[in-house]
Structure formats: C-alpha cells, structure tokens
Amino acid sequence: MAYVISEECIACGACVDSCPVDAITEGDPIYTIDAKTCTDCAACVDTCPVTAIAAA
Question: Is the domain covering 1-56 a CATH 3.30.70.20 domain?
Fold first, then answer.
C-alpha cells in the first residue's frame, strides 16, 4: 500500500529529500507520490509539516 499526499499539501518540498526511492515529484499544485515506486517506508510522513501524507 503506497502513501498519498492530500490536498492539505502546502507544496513546501520537505518530503522530497526524505524519499529514498525518489517516488515524490512536484505536481501542480501539490506534490505527488508514484504508487508504483513507493516502497511504503514512511520516511516522508514525519517530514511533512502539515501532516498531508498518509497511507492509501
């Protein structure tokens, strides 16, 4: 089960560097997580300042 970024995302980019498999990319207007690349490590969850990342 991959993680997803909700509409609460403020597009700060804090999560991007935390992803060890580069599954997070900048979208318009919020960042997105590629479900096929995501390894469910949850490294991004704690880096999000607005808790916009959760398990799908």
Answer: yes
